[in-house]
Structure formats: structure tokens, C-alpha cells
Automatic annotation (TrEMBL):
Signal sequence extent: none
Protein name: Phytoene desaturase family protein
Cytoplasm as UniProt keyword: no
A GO term for molecular function: oxidoreductase activity
Enzyme class, broadest EC rank: oxidoreductase
Gene: crtI
Segments forming domain Amine oxidase: 12-377
Pathway(s) served: Carotenoid biosynthesis
Pfam families: Amino_oxidase (PF01593)
Annotated organism of origin: Kineococcus endophyticus
Keywords: Carotenoid biosynthesis, Oxidoreductase
NCBIfam families assigned: crtI_fam
Family: Belongs to the carotenoid/retinoid oxidoreductase family.
Listed EC numbers: 1.-.-.-
Length: 489
């Protein structure tokens, strides 16, 4: 049995704590904030409640595996329901489509009905290619620890696999081979933002994101996805892990060239055989090690998000669980993000679950509204999200965009809570509020993401800023990878 310290109680830290504790390790988790969950946040006021992070589950097998490997199935502790439709999309030309959650054939039919005959066939052809990429990339890129040159050498020998994954192609590039309708290309571009990336630079392997969502379905936890974090924390405690909140770590201890525990901000030292860092990799390598090293370049940081939590009077006819409203010029949005400036005409994403647990009465609604945003980076000439004037102006930009696209809620607004990239950085410790850590831009992006096994023996990384990436499914896979690397008790 090893003594294991986990730094951070986000979803990745909690998942690895539960898995390692179930294997018999003595696990202790230290969280800097007052509650667990990390980016799986929650906000309540006046009976209105909001998930402030992820709003759906994809690749549910990852969560099912976590709960089965640590005890009872996920359904024993959470009410997990499949979404149908998954999302409503409105394009710049006014056309709209509901994408169903019942599988790829249903998606194709919905596209034909909404966008015109033949669009479903185009999307199906693209999804066949995405399925091939999934089959090739799933094990080496998502379910295994990358081993640097060894992994590259092994993959280079698989000529057919390389041709399928097309690491020299971007997501947008491979999409254009199959998608001739510009609205389908816009739809595909959106999936690059799932990892905070630019579709013109993100690798073709990200084609697996829409494939996973539409082939395996999208799911919601009644009461809010924050309950998932609570359930994993409960499971970790049941298996013997100890979780301490309001306990920031300010140093990873090294002894004899390997990790030896942590020092808390109050000066207390906790010895350990293994340290698992679930904090942003940039913070670990830049601030928590005695000798700062390997800080990810700032140019590789993913984008962030600007969020409005809206408490609304009345109900919106036909409102879906998720709504995506595209701008006139999607390329301009990515140009603004690349330049590090707030988006002038952003895509607007609305999450409004029809869940009585989230609203004070049946004649009210709680909306989580998100637009892509650059990270908080005033020290390097980037956007200063601490500017109250900027926050006010950008709030108006988002509300105006909603109104122009058919969802004017200003007359119904009881109050709004604003969350900026600076707030996200402060609350979670993510570098500049980068939601996904390192952006998936460029053919080598998977190999530039910090590895799960650090250069310091006994120190491992888990979570969205490390391999294999951000989002609940990949964070869950990173916990499984680290558990395998640490090994049985």
C-alpha cells in the first residue's frame, strides 16, 4: 500500500482518488477551495441554480467504468438521463435544426429535413471517417499514457493508421473533404471549441468529438452535473480516501530526486510515496515544484469563456436543453480569440435544462449563457478581465447578440451573475482561466500536452490540462491512466 496525496479536488483529482483508494492505497486529497468539484461548479441565488461548468456527459462508459471499479453503478447514486434533442442550432441565414440524441441515422434525417436533401449524406460520410479515426486513435491517444518518441515511432510504423488520422490535416481541412454545405462546416467548427481550439489549426483527430456525442449520446444528471462531483467525492470517501477543503498546497516536496509529499500553505508537511497533481499543469510546473520547469508556453493555452447566469421571469416556448446561436462570420470569432481580444460578434451557447431543481417556480428559467473568450492576460498585453467597464460592455454584447438572434430576454431579466476568465483563474487556479489548459492546435498538439507521468519520479498529472485533454470524458480517462501508472497497492 502506498501513501498517495492528490492535489486538487476537481473531477480528475476526485476520480483518481476514488480509483486508487478502491485499490487499497491510503489516499489524502487537498483542495484549495471551500468545496470539491473544480470546474464542475455550482451557483445558487433566490431559488435559481446553475451548473457553472460542463452541462452534459458524453462517452458515458467512462463514468460507468469509474463507478463500477469503485463500487455500485452510477445509476445507484445519480439520475442520469439521455438528452433528445442534444442541441438546437440556429445559423446565420436563419435556418435551424435540432440534432437528436438517438444515433447517427436520426441525425442525418434531421439534417436533411432542416437543411435540405443531401446534407444528411454529407454528414454521414464525414462521420464514417470520424469513426475510423476513433478506432485508430482511441487506444494510443486517449486510453494510454503517451511515451514521447516511443509512441511516435510506434504510430509512424502504422501507415494505414496514419493515413486515417491524417495528423497533417486540420479539423476544418478534413471536414471540407466531405461537407459541401457551409452550415455543416460551421457545425463542425463548433466542436473545436470543445477543447478551446481553432478549427483551422486543430488536428483532424478532433473529428472524434462529434462522433462520440452523436454515436454514444449525450446525457444529463437531474439536479445538475455538479452532483457528479459530489458522488465521486462520496465514493472516494467510502473507499477510505480523506478529502480536506480550504487546504491549498504551496509546494510539492522532493527528496532523493523523487516526489515525497506536499507542503500546505499553513506550513504543514504531508509525506507521501506518490503525489498526483490535479491542478493546472502550468501552475504545477511553474509554482509548486522546488525548481520550476516545463511551463507550457502561453501561446498554447486554450481559450476561456465569458459567462452570464441569467435569472429569468416566464418561460420560453420551445426552449431546448442546449441552444447554439451562430454569428454571421464565424472566422472573425476565431481571429479575435487568436489576437487575444474579446469576440465582437460571438457564438452564443445557452444551457437551460428543464429541471425543476434549478428554478424557484414553473414560471421562471435559469440560463447559463457562454461565449468563447480569450484568457485573462493583462501582464502580457492581453485582455484584462478585471476591468469593470469591459465586463459591462461585453455583457451588453452578449445580451444584444441573443436579441438579434431571436432570444431577447432583457425585459424578463430578474438579475444576472457574470463570470469572467479572471474569475475562473481565481477559483480553479487554471492559467489565465484557460478552460482546457493547452489548446489542441497543430499536428503535434497531443504530444505537447503535459504527460501523465512527470519528469519527477513519483509525481503524476491528472485532469484537463494534462494528457489526454479537457472535458469530462478525457479527464475521466486521465484518472484511469494515472491509476494504471501508479499500480496496485
Amino acid at each position: 500500500m502506498s501513501r498517495v496525496v492528490v492535489v486538487g479536488a476537481g473531477f480528475g483529482g476526485l476520480s483518481v482518488a476514488a480509483r486508487l483508494a478502491a485499490q487499497g492505497h491510503a489516499v489524502e486529497v487537498f483542495e484549495q477551495g471551500p468545496q470539491v468539484g473544480g470546474k464542475l461548479g455550482w451557483f445558487s441565488r433566490d431559488g435559481f441554480s446553475f451548473d457553472t461548468g460542463p452541462s452534459l456527459l458524453t462517452l458515458p462508459a467512462v463514468q460507468r467504468d469509474l463507478f463500477l471499479k469503485t463500487g455500485d453503478p452510477v445509476e445507484s447514486v445519480l439520475d442520469v438521463v439521455q438528452l433528445d434533442p442534444v442541441a438546437h442550432y440556429r445559423f446565420a441565414d436563419g435556418t435551424e435544426v435540432d440534432l437528436p440524441g438517438g444515433g447517427l441515422p436520426q441525425v442525418a434525417r434531421a439534417l436533411d429535413d432542416a437543411l435540405g436533401a443531401g446534407t444528411g449524406a454529407q454528414w454521414t460520410a464525414f462521420q464514417r471517417r470520424a469513426a475510423e479515426i476513433w478506432d485508430v486513435a482511441r487506444e494510443p491517444f486517449l486510453e494510454s499514457a503517451l511515451e514521447g518518441p516511443k509512441t511516435l515511432l510506434r504510430l509512424a510504423k502504422d501507415v494505414r493508421g496514419l493515413r486515417t488520422v491524417a495528423p497533417w490535416s486540420s479539423l476544418r481541412g478534413v471536414g471540407r473533404q466531405y461537407l459541401h454545405d457551409p452550415r455543416l462546416r460551421t457545425l463542425l467548427d463548433r466542436y473545436a471549441t470543445y477543447s478551446g481550439s481553432d478549427p483551422g489549426r486543430a488536428p483532424a483527430a478532433l473529428a472524434t468529438v462529434p462522433f462520440v456525442e452523436q454515436a454514444f449520446g449525450a446525457w444529463y444528471v437531474r439536479g445538475g452535473l455538479h452532483l457528479l462531483a459530489q458522488a465521486v467525492a462520496d465514493r472516494a470517501r467510502e473507499r477510505g480516501a480523506r478529502i480536506t477543503t480550504d487546504a491549498p498546497v504551496d509546494r510539492v516536496l522532493e527528496e532523493g530526486g523523487r516526489a515525497a509529499g506536499v507542503r500546505l500553505a499553513d506550513g504543514r508537511q504531508v509525506r507521501a510515496d506518490v503525489v498526483v497533481s490535479a491542478v493546472d499543469a502550468a501552475r504545477l510546473y511553474g509554482d509548486l515544484l522546488p525548481r520550476p520547469r516545463l511551463r507550457p508556453p502561453r501561446r498554447l493555452r486554450s481559450s476561456s469563456g465569458f459567462v452570464l447566469l441569467l435569472a429569468l421571469e416566464g418561460r420560453t416556448p420551445g426552449l431546448r436543453h442546449h441552444t447554439v446561436l451562430f454569428p454571421d462570420d464565424y472566422d472573425a470569432e476565431f481571429a479575435d480569440l487568436a489576437a487575444g481580444r474579446p469576440v465582437a460578434d460571438p457564438t452564443v451557447y445557452v444551457s437551460a435544462p428543464d429541471d425543476p431543481a434549478l428554478r424557484p417556480s414553473d414560471d421562471t428559467e435559469a440560463w447559463f449563457v457562454l461565449v468563447n473568450a480569450p484568457v485573462h492576460d493583462p501582464q502580457h498585453g492581453g485582455t484584462d478581465w478585471r476591468s469593470e467597464d469591459l465586463v459591462r460592455r461585453h455583457t451588453d454584447v452578449v445580451l444584444d447578440a441573443l436579441a438579434r438572434r431571436g432570444l431577447d430576454v432583457r425585459s424578463r431579466l430578474r438579475w444576472a451573475e457574470v463570470r469572467t476568465p479572471a474569475d475562473l483563474e481565481e477559483r480553479t487556479g487554471s492559467d489565465g482561466g484557460a478552460i482546457y489548459g493547452t489548446a489542441s492546435n497543430g499536428a503535434r498538439s497531443a504530444f505537447l500536452r503535459p504527460a501523465n507521468r512527470s519528469p519527477v519520479p513519483g509525481l503524476f498529472l491528472v485532469g484537463g490540462s494534462s494528457h489526454p485533454g479537457g472535458g469530462l470524458p478525457l479527464v475521466g480517462l486521465s484518472a484511469r491512466i494515472v491509476t494504471d501508472l501508479v499500480g496496485p497497492a
